[in-house]
Amino acid sequence: MIFKSLYYLVNFFITIGEVTQRLIIFPFQILTRALTILIRRLKAIKVRLPLPEISLRVKYFITGSLVTLIIVFANNSYLFIKSLPSPSNIGKTNYPLSTHIYDRNGKLLYEIYHEQNRTPVSLKKLPNYVAQTTIAIEDKDFYRHNGIALFSGIFRAIKEMMIHKNLQGGSTITQQLVKAALLTPERTWERKIKEIILALWTERIYTKDQILEMYLNQVPYGGSAYGIEEAGKTYFGKSAKDLTLEQAALLAGLPQAPSLYSPYINPKAALERRNEVLEAMYKQGYIKESLNLKSQISNLEVIPPKTAIRAPHFVFYTKSQLESYFGISKVEEGGLKVYTTLDLDIQEQAEQILREKLDKINYLNVTNGAILVTRPSTGEILAMVGSKDYFEQPYGAFNVTTAQRQPGSSIKPIMYSLALQKGFTAATILDDSPVVFKIPGASPYQPVNYDGKYHGKIPLRYALGNSYNIPAVRTLEKVGVSDFIDYASKMGISTWQDKSRYGLSLTLGGGEVTMIDMAEAFGVLANNGYKLPESYFTKIENSNGQIIREYKPFKIKEIDSGISYIISDILSDNFARQWAFGPSSSLEIPGYKVAVKTGTTNDKRDNWTIGYTPDFLVVVWVGNNDNTAMNPYLTSGITGASPIWNRVMSYLLNNYSNGSKWYAKPDSVVEKTCYFGRREYFIKGTETKDRCSQEALATPTPKP
What's domain 99-337's architecture? Predict the structure, then answer.
């Protein structure tokens, strides 16, 4: 035992000497050499300088620096050395603490890394390419360095981050091993120095193959799978020795960011990451070009996840948000307690409604759907159902609420609210007659209405209520596509980045959005013109029970409350929409006033319904994850998503609402009698701008 301790101590001091050589003496050697070259060149051009004085000052600087370092080291070295764990403890200590995710009422949704399923496997029993995939993507110089790759590692990290936007770090496999096995996840210079010392120390104790074997048995691959053996069983149902090249490449790409590259959460990113590993193997000579190309076009196939989890789409959305804020290590190993905004009772009811309703319309070739429930006044997410069944292959784990889909006509209220801001009123007469827009460099654009008819002169209220396309396109032409994009972005739409991609069809759903963004944008209308970002947590505690983050709603005034009030009134006006939807559609909830809008894309690939009250906002989408078209019977926009929306909203209003509450009329809104004695609302000062013409209620004319 004494000899073993002495052996470790000797190796430690050798390591300290090596670190000193690399981090202290070597830079001074470079400095001295640079000064020597500079002095020689100055002599060559006969420049007179007090060279002895410069040399003396350099010597004083070096001496003073070394003395200072020695004094500091003498005072702190004992405590620093004492705090260093021994590499002999790799695999024995530093197991992470599990993070718990709860709903808003304290019900457990998921426990991250509660158990570490770890089955050691010998490197000799694995195919060569299992180790090669990891080396290729994590540390191509693994067999050539002595534990750290100071310059190449830093340059690699900077290049990957700046050029390729990858999350690849500058640490070697040895550094990653000691960091995961022996150190805390904190990001400090002290921890980094410890990591470097321990990496060099580890390389003196173990062989390269031993280090690589420990790494493969130690690192997390996502969920409770620690080590390559359990990762193989988790994702492919097989032992690591039976993995194919493509499967090994997928697993090798996971440790850098298990959630980001998870084939369950983000299959597209997982496939891209796998192919990145394969490309690295080819460039480093591990595989031939033909095998690289063949492997990259192979399908990504994993077995369904087997884990106890509630509200899985929301849980992994939360996990991703946590990782963005705290970092992966803190989430996976920090023992956080996350109290989310989700209400599990509402969540489970929404899941059940979605399954039941989709089963009834399966004959319309509608196989999937998604539901998002928020509280407009706070931005809290109350329910997130990302698909019909999270565990259904191949698309169940894909979260539609965060995916980009075309919104159809459900985007129109956002555009019309901009029109009100630019001087339009709910009584402004719009023209629903044939029109062709000539677009430079493109084919002429001729919008049509879903019913194949034209409706003549019609007030804005009825154009929006019945979702007529032609008046919406004419209005967008007047308010401007560029201004609409800027306005929608301010309201919460984050996906319209390249303005050159969009034209007048944008108001009919020609630009992809996410359900999360639509909830935020409609939330401005539902919250009297104030915007609140969607929130997933109420509070977060550390492992000691201290609150380290607490949600405090912060609202921003985006539009006049009068505009949101008028748009909400139009969307809740069952009389105004009856030409298109009839007097008794699924958009109506007896006993309650609810604002609601539908949307269906022309190709019938997306069908939406979005509705809200002061208490709740519900977004529903139905379609197919493989992007195939649904049955044309969905043309009306109330066959697919609307019945689901109606049941969810009815459940919320009947069980959680304080009665049929509606918005109080803002001081900026005035009322005027129009249309056969019906009232109309105006922003104060615009009530005399548009006359309330009765000619707008003419009978629709068929398309010629």
Answer: Orthogonal Bundle (1.10)
